[in-house]
Fold each of these.
Amino acid sequence: MQKLVSLDDIELNVSAADWQDAVIKSGTILLNNGYVTREYVNAMVQTVKNLGPYIVVAPGLAMPHARSTNGVIKSGISIMTLSQPVEFGNESNDPVYLLIGLAGSNDDLHLKIMQAIATIFEDDRMLERITACDRREMVARIFNDVEVEE
């Protein structure tokens, strides 16, 4: 079993001007931790511009990502809560308080990471619990309690 996140993968109460700024900041966590290249961060934004706000997968939760061929170095995620929510243009799930940036080095591992995250959010109160956390250790504990097959 591998851990889903380290403390460096988590930023809390981040200020973002809009959805694009939020996606860039989420991607920059991935970049700074060696998961992706700058090209991948730019591709995360471009994906939303091209395909719309489908990355807002549940009320308050966005999962920005791009294709692995856009610069994934190794698989990982970033977790970022916002000090003020942002609108993506997804009527049923806006505004967004939590972004989980995804970088999957291959489709199989990407799917396993998404399944692990889906397991966490089976609890309807999880978004509220995570956004209420004031310490990265608290968030890491939530995410690292699920198993990710290698």
Amino acid sequence: MINDILNTFSISEQNPGASDGVQFISTSGAGINSWSPVDGHKIAGVQTVTKAEYDQVITKAQAAFRYWRTVPAPARGEIVRQIGEALRVHKDALGKLVSYEMGKSLQEGRGEVQEMIDICDFAVGLSRQLYGLTMHSERPAHRMYEQWHPLGIVGIISAFNFPVAVWSWNAMIALVCGDVCVWKPSEKTPLSALACFRILTEVFNKNQLPEGLCSLVQGGKDLGEWMAEDPRVALVSATGSTRMGKAVNITVAARLGKCLLELGGNNAIIVSGDADLDMTLMGVVFGAVGTAGQRCTTTRRLIIHESVFGQLTEKLKNAYAQLRIGDPLDARNHVGPLIDKDAVAQYLQALDAIQNEGGTFIVEGGVLEGAEYASGCYVKPCIAVVENHFAIVQTETFAPILYVMQYRDMEEAIAMQNDVPQGLSSAIMTLNLREAELFLSVAGSDCGIANVNIGTSGAEIGGAFGGEKETGGGRESGSDAWKAYMRRQTNTINYGKELPLAQGIAFNI
């Protein structure tokens, strides 16, 4: 089945990717092999770019930008519309490839491609709404206004957990803004990226667009460093760990470049004594085990009012007992594997740290064994009773580990919610209007995303996505996140017969 999917995108082990106008494939770089965590099998390999080849990519991107910035924004939107239509055609095949290469459930793989389609639709509308402002001048016969121009080359560094969607959040918005893109995908999911560029190839070639408009470069840490250091890359949008983001930010800031960071999350749901516990259960379980706990918006902490702690944890124990763990391409399964054995090792280290700090388990964890788990990447979602100050609770472990703790009053709960270094997503479950409004107020959640009666995971593309503190402060996707991909320019036009100076200054000559 997977070979049929690869053939759909003209990918094979013998010829993983030839130069096709939008993608750059190295002829001399080292290789990256893609291994599926589903069964442990090697899928195919791609070559990495050398520094000289990377420079060629950037040169082509510069030339493409000089053309693309002159194309009217609605015409750029038409290209993105066609990309969305092509994604609709390939949704099933690309969703299966994402699921097999990354390990998320088939429903989530297809959902990720649907996110790409949704952002294309959003970007098409945006292409006619890149609005500026007009201002009143203090000088007679003068008009002031501001407009937005494209930045240039946008470098996109994406993570394995959303191997295609997060790229599209950046690329589709950047394209309608008049930018060109160079994409470094995760080394763990290179084939999903390659498949995306096969889809782009069809659209770009049909419209006779220049090479370099969108480029794919495969590589490791050194490639990310080249992009961060390169003054020709106007904006670096990086998604990944806080450690990686800090390194990128320091390097880009040293050259006064622009950075958009989407980094770690340590997301909590506060469960009020006035919560609908059945609704809460659904939000918590999906938030905690979806994508095997490998989302930046995964629910990692559950802060429960003492009056409903026992009742809710009992419901959670029953729900976890019903989870089906296995091949993510089987739609009956809820939870697939972790991305690789390194992730499994980090999961096991976290379990040890919980016990060492005095936590206890109400749902035990562990690595699953047996023929269907032969890749060694399948683990049990678990629930641990902890204190918020535990060192392990203060960090982000990319695994299905849910920490539960109790609170007495809402002010205490909000303080616990905010008392972690990360600030991405947060939620409260309550039917109490006062509690909900307090949570959303300036005295409430300090996260970039704050929800009421839904979980921390599953953001819609219409809203700006991102977080504060060690999450990096970036915003992608909807709302006015497009402004990150453009530069603001203020213009003043004098249509009178005199040249008065601002602030009433007289300069007689």
Amino acid sequence: MLELDILKFDRSDLLYTACYCEENIYMLCSEILKKRPELLDDFSVMFISNDHRSVPLWQQRAGRGEEHVVLWDYHVVLYYKQNSEALIYDFDTLLPFPSPADFYALETFKPNMLVKDEYKHMFRLIPAKLYLDHFESDRSHMLNERGEYMATPPQYPAILKKGKHNLDNYISMKQDAPQDIFGRVMTSDDFYESIFH
């Protein structure tokens, strides 16, 4: 079994920019690639959204009320799975970093709660290596009508390799998106089945 202390990063030592979860996770994948490249195959980048781009997440730093719930258009975390061990790394959670995946799912997605279809979570899982190779963002999704950033962007340059902004391909939960680069889509039932059984 893999020693957990290898994977317990101190959040304060990692690059983080509020409202740029897709880049925070990209940078975390880069850190793993630098320090422990042999582990990267056990990691997947997980986009959480739905066709309405409206997903409730609990225990979030930006959340409100006693349970710190927030409605995101999408969110991105890092998912580790090896045999029966599964962890989730979320920079924006109030839960431990990382958290056991089953505990994180119960506290963050409330799978036993009845919600309208428009708020049901869907998940896109992309192998971390593919994400590092192909993810690109020009940060245009963070600009308002006046061309101003709605949240201060990271201090490092935008992640562009071929100059092709492709964030929407990852956020989309359409099953027919190209599966080779953009991973696979799972319904909430399928994802919960994979971590609770």
Amino acid sequence: MAAIEQVPNVVFKTRVRDESVPGPNPYRWEDKTTKDIFAGKKVVVFSLPGAFTPTCSSNHLPRYEELYDEFKAQGVDQIICVSVNDAFVMFQWGKQIGAKNVYLLPDGSGEFTRKMGMLVDKSNLGFGYRSWRYSMLVNDGKIEKMFVEPDFADNCPTDPFEVSDADTMLAYLKGGKSAGVSEPRREFVG
């Protein structure tokens, strides 16, 4: 397997608010490409196993929300949370958790996650295929740095949460580039 240097080209199926849509649910489908999301921008991406899950809801997403202004001060244009969930689930999760600054990007089919080499089987938890927990700094589509949680494996009995957190990424951006974190796995799969 070769190391992945660019975010993979995929089409994300998203829902966007559109007041011209009649009824109580004024949203329409909108395809967003990798280029739409990453071209010409400095983006922090973090990926997690699932919306509404304990660590993701109590710490992972809320901490990125909390530190949003500090990320912006480091020149970050956008913070994106990717999960192998559909657009409806991601919307409801964001609404429940009060996400205002982090863009919740649905990877419903898992194509982006698979092409990143981060798709794992979590059938032991009844999830099926989901994302391994990681974060990355992407500049104009080029992956500059990844922090991948240890013990990457299918049906891992634990859910490590040590290096993909907001504080580790922020320390990296502020110059703590050797924040005691080993070089992560960056491999392309299929």
